[in-house]
Design brief:
The protein has 204 residues and is mostly helical. The chain has a domain of 117 residues: Potassium Channel Kv1.1, Chain A (2-Layer Sandwich), CATH 3.30.710.10. The chain has seven helices and three strands; from the N terminus they run αββααβαααα. A three-stranded mixed beta sheet has the order 2-1-3. Helix 2 packs across helix 3, helix 4 packs across helix 5 and helix 5 runs antiparallel to helix 6.
């Protein structure tokens, strides 16, 4: 009787593998490539593992697959127009899948990712730039809204004053009617003035 197949899968194995390779690189163990980086007179050398670089960068994969022969125990690769700090950050990313950089270096990391054809780093930089842009736009929107609310609150008192003035004017009109009772309109139409005593009119 055949038994059913089961899947043995480790969630931690990829992380452990990366961590172990990173430690081997930092200690210089089993490294088989030296990358020389030079930019504006600043030069540095980095040791690494061909397999890791080839797996994460199409640029290095092409270099290693096309090399004719080994010039010694280690392959040497020379990179110019790449800043030392940027390549150090690139190496840390490909060995750990994360790296901390200043905001103004994100664009440079995107450029080195494109130069070395590292898709994972390129996508990570692109997503981070998108988030940064969205946060800037959100800040601008919040600032604009706060400015508008300040302008509205500044115009509100004058509106209140105008409405109060109108209310006061209405109240005055109610207290002082336009046609008081002793006005000529309300006088009798017989031509006799109400102030004249009735006795005088009889005498006439």
């Amino acid at each position: 009787m055949e038994s059913n197949a089961v899947l043995l899968e480790s969630k931690s194995s990829p992380i452990n593998l990366l961590n172990e390779m990173h430690q081997l690189r930092l200690l210089g163990h089993l490294c088989d490539v030296t990358v020389s980086v030079e930019y504006q007179g600043v030069r540095a050398e980095f040791v690494a593992h061909k397999a890791v670089l080839a797996a994460t960068s199409k640029f290095f994969k092409e270099v290693f697959l096309n090399e004719k022969g080994m010039d010694g125990p280690r392959t040497n690769v020379f990179l110019n127009e790449v800043q030392v700090a940027d390549f150090a950050s690139f190496l840390e990313f490909v060995y750990t899948a994360k790296v901390e950089v200043e905001e103004d270096r994100v664009q440079r990391m995107l450029e080195i990712a494109e130069k070395l054809k590292c898709l994972d780093l390129s996508e990570t930089c692109f997503q981070l730039k998108k988030q940064m842009l969205e946060s800037v736009l959100l800040e601008l929107q919040n600032f604009s809204e706060s400015q508008n609310s300040e302008e509205e609150s500044a115009t509100q008192p004058s509106i209140l004053l105008e409405s109060k003035a109108a209310a006061v004017a209405e109240a005055d009109q109610a207290d002082c009617p336009l046609d008081p009772p002793d006005s000529p309109v309300d006088r009798p139409s017989n031509g006799v003035s109400p102030e004249m005593p009735a006795t005088k009119s009889k005498e006439k």
